[in-house]
Each structure stands twice: as C-alpha cells, then as structure tokens.
Design brief:
By secondary structure, the protein is an all-alpha fold. The protein folds into two domains: 167 residues, no CATH class; 233 residues, no CATH class. The chain contains 20 helices and no strands. Helix 3 packs across helix 6. The model has no long low-confidence stretch (mean pLDDT 89).
Length: 499
C-alpha cells in the first residue's frame, strides 16, 4: 500500500487514527499500552501489504538488534566486550543490507575473478526482491545501537522497538529517526488526546505533499522517462528538459512523500524529523547537503565521515578531502546497487572537495553564480542517479553539451518557443504525449522550478500555519487537484521506495 493511494488516505489512515485515540487511557491516568499495541499491529499489516514474505526480514532485524542493544548496554562501558558487540551489530546490519541489495551487483565481478583463477561456471544472479524500507530501517538500527553503545539511549522494550522501527509513517522511506527524538513522543501523556490543531496542520502538509507527488512529480516523470529511457539521441533542448524534469521529479517525489508521512504522523501527535529545507536554492554543495535528505546527511556525517577522519591521524586537510570522497562514494552506493550511483556520489564528493578548496581562498562568489554552479552540479549528479547505465547517462550529457544540435533536425527553434503544435509533433521527447499534456508538463517544469526556489518550503508553511479560511481553500485546492491526477494516471511508486 502506497501512502498516496486512495486505500491509505480514505481507509487505512482514518481508521487507524480513530482506533488509536479510542484506545488511549482516560485523562485520570493509566498506560497507553493498548494504543501502542494497535499501532504496532497496523504498522506490521501495512508492511505486510508490500510483500508478506519480507515481514520476517523486518521482524528478524528488530529481534536481532533488540538482543544486541541489551547485550551492549549490559557490558561495561569502554570494555572490549562492549566494542566487540557493537562491531558484531554493525556487521550484522550491513550484511543484511548487502545480501539483499548488493549481491547481484558484486556476484558477476567475483564470479569473473573466480573463473579466471579456478575455472568453472559463472554464478547465477540471486535476483532478490529488496524488502520495503530495508535501506532506511537498517541505518536507523545502526544509529540506535550506536546511541546505546555511547550511553545516549536505553534499550527499548520489544513493543517500543517494533514501533520505533516499523511505524507505518516512516518504515517505507524514512525520515531516519533517532530513538531520543521519536520514542518519547509516544510516551508523552499530553500527546494521547486528539488534537484538532495538529490534525489541521497535518492535513495541510499532507495535501501539499500529495500535490507535489501526484501533480508535479508524476507529470514530470513522463519527460524524464522519455529522455532517459526512450530517446536514442537528444538535442540540447530535449536533454536539458529531461534532466531538469528528473531533478524536479525527484525533489517533488521525495519531499512530497515526506510531507505526506509527516502530515499522517501529526494526526497521531507525532512529529517526524525534518528532511528537506529548500535544497535546490542552496548556494553551495555543502549547503545543499544540509538541506537535502537531512536525516541521511546527518547519518553519513556522524557515522561515516567523522570516524574516517578520526581514524586517519594526524588529521590534515588532504585527508579530510579524501574522507569526503570515500564517504560520498559510500552514500552514492547506498542509494542503489549500480556503479552509476557510485558515480553520483563521486560527482558530489568532488564538488564538495572543490567547495572546501575554494573556501580556503576566502573569496566569495556572487550569489547568482554560486547558485548556478551548485544547481548544475546537482543536476549533473542526478543524471547518473536516473540513468540505467553509463551509456544512457553519457547520451544525456552529450545532448546537454549540444552535440546533437539545439533542437531535433528539421524543427525550427522559434516554433518550439511559441509552443507550435506542429513543431511539438516532430520532437521525439514529446512523442505520444499529446499537445496539451506536453504544454501542461512544460508549464509544471517552469513553475515547479520557480516554486522550489522562491516559495516557502513545507516546513516553513507548517510552522506558519493558521486555521484560516484561506488555508482551508488552499488545502481543498491541493487535495482536489491531487485526487484528479491520482485518478487520471497510473499509480506510481515513490522513487526512494525502491532504495
């Protein structure tokens, strides 16, 4: 079940919230055990709908990390036993992720090496389906074990560990939660009563997220797919349209998902971690990663980059740059089991290194130029992110560099600018979309970019929210448009759901 489906919005979410608050204890005291049990039960049901065969993976991860957390907590602080238990926990979580996600990526390489050394047949690919949310809840489990190891968190009860890891609002694709941020909210008696204010605020940001996903992201996805998956060669105009369409698709798709689950969690008086802060308006790559997928950025900074730098003593500026490259390559690989994702990470790693080198000069770039360089780097990185292989990526880069002309042969550029239907019919990128769909999509491309750069982001809107008539009309407009588009197009999954 997807969180932008009719079943989730009109059946699962309201029924879950109604029973959740019905089971909360009365104001004179008591435990909310029944309400938490209900939330765990429906969360596991939600997860099982994505593939019941993967439910044992989630439950096994929870049980294993629960036992490891208790063992780590029981071991003396600073002891060798405590460190070995932590290492065992890290290896177990990474191995679980690696087995499901990367086995088929590395098997051909290892198989070729084995054939060269010992002969024999090449190993068959495992073709394992990736369990829902594995990349996200594995990182969450690692952060939890680290918090217990460092004495920043107590081991959770089995019920709370199930809720911490499997809560339906974030199990699919985050945000990556820290136990100290999330779990106290479920035990706060002031959050056990239904809040009209939180419900209104939650529905407002949920409607915005639906609009970003169903209207903007899914419309732009058609242009990205046409450019990356269908066209044999791309003109400059087509390549830039396809690459920009995917950059905006990914942003609106993922930030839209976060808005939907943030709004859904607010119905339960639960505030999820902030994950986006207008990243496409960033003036440097350092700033971009402070604003994009914030919980992942915090994780890789805390648990990959910082330990690497500290391990390479004495610390030096060149070593810190090397640590950035290694960290971003790992971050890229985390996104997907393909070398194109490593290239995506290295593009950002090299860009971050260049940014740090420039900052040592203590010379500021004009804001417009700084934004342009940052945005072009981000857009180039997302070409590797979207392309199925390097050939497809370089086909897009070739078009972006103008090697195939400004527009397709035989098409007058001025006719394209004037939105001439006859000209559009001869542009391969728009083939089969229809004139009105094409114009609407291009309009969303321009308006989406302007909105991502100039309008307040969802976090700011949520902070400033007031239950006024204007807010109600805005919510209704977002919701109406989203439902129309959800009913008109084939239902699509979220991009990050596959990671």
């Amino acid at each position: 079940m997807l969180v932008h489906s009719f079943a989730f919005l009109f059946l699962f979410l309201p029924a879950t919230a109604f029973v959740y608050f019905l089971l909360q204890p009365k104001p004179d005291g008591g435990s909310n055990l029944a309400a938490r049990l209900w939330l765990v039960a429906v969360s596991l049901f939600f997860y099982a709908l994505s593939g019941v065969q993967h439910l044992p993976v989630l439950l096994g991860s929870i049980l294993g990390n629960r036992l490891l957390a208790r063992a780590i907590h029981a071991a003396p602080a600073g002891s060798r036993q405590r460190r070995l238990l932590l290492i065992a926990g890290l290896c177990a979580n990474i191995s679980l992720l690696g087995f499901f996600k990367y086995a088929d990526m590395f098997l051909p390489t290892f198989g070729a090496a084995g054939q060269a050394l010992w002969g024999g047949a090449a190993p068959e690919l495992l073709r394992l389906a990736l369990p829902l949310g594995l990349s996200f809840f594995t990182l969450q489990q690692i952060a939890y074990l680290m918090d217990v190891y460092e004495g920043l968190a107590e081991p959770l009860t089995t019920l709370d560990h199930l809720l911490f890891t499997g809560f339906f609002a974030q199990v699919m694709a985050g945000p990556i939660a820290r136990v100290r941020q999330l779990m106290p909210q479920f035990h706060d008696p002031e959050r056990w009563r239904f809040s009209w204010d939180n419900a209104a605020r939650g529905l407002y940001v949920l409607a915005l997220g639906l609009f970003k996903k169903a209207v903007l992201a899914d419309t732009l996805a058609r242009f990205a797919a046409a450019g990356f998956d269908q066209a044999n060669q791309l003109s400059l105009a087509e390549a830039w349209t396809a690459s920009l369409a995917f950059t905006l698709q990914l942003y609106f798709d993922f930030s839209g998902y976060v808005d939907v689950v943030t709004g859904a969690a607010l119905l339960f008086n639960i505030q999820l971690a902030k994950n986006f802060d207008s990243p496409l308006a960033a003036l440097s790559l350092i700033d971009f990663w402070r604003r994009w997928h914030i919980t992942l950025s915090n994780f890789i900074t805390t648990y990959i980059y910082t330990p690497l730098v500290r391990a390479w003593t004495p610390i030096s500026f060149p070593k810190s740059l090397l640590a950035i490259l290694v960290t971003m390559a790992i971050a890229g690989l985390w996104h997907g089991a393909a070398w194109t994702f490593v290239a995506f990470g290295l593009v950002h790693g090299l860009g971050l290194c260049a940014t740090h080198l420039w900052r040592k000069r203590k010379t500021r770039l004009p804001a417009a130029l700084a934004w342009l360089l940052t945005f072009f780097t981000v857009n180039a990185g997302f070409v590797f992110f979207r392309a199925h292989d390097f050939a497809a990526a370089f086909r897009v880069f070739s078009g972006m560099a103008g090697q195939n002309g400004l527009v397709p042969a035989g098409v007058a550029f001025w006719r394209v600018l004037l939105l001439d239907p006859l000209a559009f019919d001869r542009v391969p990128l728009f083939d089969g979309m229809g004139y009105l769909d094409t114009v609407l999509g291009l309009g969303f491309l321009v308006l989406g970019l302007a909105g991502a750069l100039l309008l307040p982001n969802s976090g700011r809107l949520m902070e400033q929210f007031q239950p006024t008539r204007r807010a109600a009309l805005t919510l209704a407009a977002w919701l109406f448009a989203s439902l129309v588009f959800m009913n008109s197009f084939l239902e699509k999954g979220f991009v990050y759901r596959d990671f």
